[in-house]
Amino acid sequence: MPIQLNKSINSSSTEFNLIAGDLQGNILMPHARNFAAQIFIKFKDSEKAKKLIQKKIVPKITTAKQQKLNSIAFKTNKNLRYKRFLNFSLSKTGYDFLNVLSTKIPQDNSFKQGQKKMSPGLKDPAVNDWQIEFQTDWHALLIIANASSKLLKNQVKKIRNILNHASVDVIYVEMGTGLKNSDNNHIEHFGYVDGISQPHMFTDKIEAGKISTNNWNPGGTLDLALVSDPGGKDENAFGSYFIFRKLEQNVKAFKEAEKQLADILDVSVDYAGAQMVGRFRNGVPLIPETPPKPIQTKKFNDFNYDLENSSAAKCPFGSHIRTTNPRSGKKISSPQFPRRGITYGKDSTNSSNNPEKDVGLLFMAHNRNIASQFEFMQKSWANNTNFPRQGSGIDPIIGQGNKSSEQTYFKKWGDETSKIEIRPSLGHFVTMKGGEYFFTPSISFLKRI
Ligand code: HEM
């Protein structure tokens, strides 16, 4: 019997045990290591590549089962965070190069086309303006992660040797390093706490009452990320589409815009920035605090915008978190998906030296259906000047395309009459440098590839 994907599950359930040994890690829960190497691979010889995958890569993959066991053991043995995490995904070009039978290739249309073909619809820069390495059609992406950058470097070196011996044609490594603030929370380069709101495909924390769910239940069904793997051993072999996008952040321009907005509104820089993001720097959301107190509740996530106090004057409709998750009910649903990104580049969040380039987010995410999840969120929500309301403007963090629309901000929290329209809208501080769509297949498929 195939397990039902339209629900979330407990990680101790029979259902999880049925799928966990054949499923790769980082899909249902994040690998949670602070250092990660994203290794892009182009094979030279399909037969040698298949042997490499079967003999050298598969035995190193961290399955969902191993990831769960490690996270339990970690509670008693902190050294386990130094255990290597590894997973492996293939692009459609990779499947074709390896001569995989068409009946065994995942059928998502955007995956089959590849990100380059889909990028005009996302209003990305033209492919020949992407970072040169991403203009290549990569066959595979191998991710190795560790809590120690030194150990990770050694592991990357070893993998490079293995790949070179297997006559891999080209390798490109994109290093990610998690940034943290003084509260030990993960932040992105504009300085805001990130990764607070995520679908929880495991019900464990919710059932244990560790997450408050009065107004927002983050319990996400498995089908926000999992799909049946057509090449897998049986009906309980699953995989997931994997989106990679390198997003460069212009920190200087963002900080200037925060300051400019604060001057126009005559509010603090902190409050101006919070209106663009929807949360203060330390993660406190603009809803439902009355009025918000940035130093108190920190990673609070139990809110929705249907609450009586959810007008735009409290959290602007166009702010990043309201545009990407309008929370019209109390429960998470598609198009939401697990985000697995990590920051890259030098940490300058504590200095006055705000970089204009070479820092940003390696945006990574797992999807069940790329068009109706990631692409829908980017195209129909973030880039749309009329979502979630007529005239709310593009998402000031990730909106692409329309530069001349307007956005609405407020001089006073909760006061509709204090609204100010800004034109042209603030945004375009993030530049897409390149990306690809992959599929993270079941272990059984890779063993028999
Ligand atoms: C450099 C690029 C980006 C930056 C700096 C950024 C920053 C942030 C921050 C600070 C948060 C608040 C923390 C949280 O609620 O988890 C957030 C949340 C979120 N972001 Fe982004 N983000 C970026 C790219 C993206 C992209 C490309 C997407 C999807 C197309 C996206 C979708 C989301 C979603 C869905 C949330 C959670 C909203 C909620 O559930 O309330 N982000 N992001």
Your description of this structure?
There is one protein chain. The protein has 449 residues and is an alpha+beta fold. It has a domain at 14-247 and 435-447. Helix content is 24%, strand content 18%. The chain is built from 13 helices and 13 strands. Strands 7, 8, 9, 10 and 13 form a five-stranded antiparallel β-sheet that branches. Strands 2-3-1-4 form a four-stranded antiparallel β-sheet. Helix 9 packs across helix 10. The protein is globular. The chain starts with 13 loop residues before the first helix and ends with a helix.
Short characterization:
The protein has 449 residues and is an alpha+beta fold. The chain has a domain at 14-247 and 435-447.
List the helices and strands and how they pair.
Blueprint: H1 14-20, E1 35-43, H2 46-57, H3 64-74, E2 85-90, H4 92-97, H5 109-113, H6 115-118, E3 140-146, H7 149-165, E4 168-177, E5 179-180, E6 186-187, H8 204-207, E7 227-228, E8 238-249, H9 251-265, H10 269-277, H11 320-324, E9 342-344, E10 360-367, H12 374-382, E11 407-410, E12 419-422, E13 430-440, H13 443-447
Antiparallel strand pairs: 1-3, 1-4, 2-3, 5-6, 7-8, 8-10, 8-13, 9-10, 11-12
Helix pairs in contact: 9-10
